Amino acid sequence: MSRVVLFSTSTCSWCRRAKQYLKEKRVPFKEIDVGRDPEAARDLVRKTGQTGVPVLKIGSKWIVGFDRPRIEHELERLQ
User: What pTM does this model have?
Assistant: First the structure.
């Protein structure tokens, strides 16, 4: 399993920004489109209580929204 997972939808502009950011930083990640995967959407709500995206899981930490400082902090911890 990837150490970085991005939960997104195809219509979410913040999801596109998060994806672009990870690509620019050359961070390998797995993307899960919760708009196309209802089971993943239910699982995300159970684990985070959130229905909105983007949500990133970096290592064991969950980050709701495109919170660049928290994302950078957690990515540094992975190294």
Answer: 0.93
Spell out a b/e string for 10-32, using b for 16 or more CB atoms within 10 Å of the CB, else e.
eebeebeebbebbeeeebebeeb
Alpha helices in the chain (DSSP H): 13-24, 38-48, 68-78
**Residue 42: CATH number of its domain:** 3.40.30.10
Structurally, how many domains does the chain consist of?
1
Structural domain for 53, as ranges: 4-78
What is the full per-residue pLDDT of the chain (79 aa) written as tens digits? 579 999 999 999 999 999 999 999 999 999 999 999 999 999 999 999 989 999 999 999 999 999 999 999 999 998 8
